[in-house]
Write a structure and sequence with these properties.
The structure is a homodimer of 100-residue chains.
Chain A (H helix, E strand, L loop, with lengths): L2 E8 L5 H15 L5 E9 L4 E8 L2 H17 L6 E8 H6 L5
Antiparallel strand pairs in A: 1-3, 1-4, 2-3
């Protein structure tokens, strides 16, 4: 069973290339997280939000990572962090081309 | 540029295999959507929610699909549909193994 973690929060910037530069080291660190299959980094300059969509291969690591990442985001000054963990319906997702 | 659409809404069931059976035809239809790269189908029996995470190759199709899908969900009786569209930060996502 695979698990999807969706996280978003208000973010005043930076966006785009500057966002990439600011978070490249963090992305390399996240790549080493136990249980993580992939993360899509999300940002929206118009709505002033950012976040991430994560696929994990087990629920425990998804929950552990969410706790860790929430504390990290709060330490960076972020608040109003919205997070949900879902089961992935794998048969339907594979019909729609998802890379699980 | 790629765009991520995240959608979730209250869902009383079915879940799991019964969910798969109920929505296989819809998944096949969604697979033909213009601009769609993939969709991950999400469900959570504990929180009574379901949704989807979509990757599109252009913003116009993401917005068009969201309008279409919202009307479809409402026609199925769903309400309180929460949706956000984000830019995908491709360099950071590729560091973290995302399949874009």
């Amino acid at each position: 069973m695979k698990y999807l973690l969706q996280v978003d929060f208000p973010h005043q910037g930076p966006f785009g290339e500057e966002f990439t530069g600011a978070f490249t080291d963090l992305a390399k660190d996240i790549a080493e997280e136990s249980g993580l299959i992939w993360k899509v980094w999300t940002e929206n300059e118009a709505t002033k939000e950012a976040g991430g969509i994560y696929l994990f291969d087990n629920l425990q690591d998804a929950q552990r990572y969410l706790d860790k990442h929430t504390k990290r985001l709060e330490s960076f000054g972020y608040g109003n962090i919205r997070a949900k963990i879902f089961n992935v319906n794998e048969p339907l997702s594979l019909i729609d081309g998802a890379k699980l």
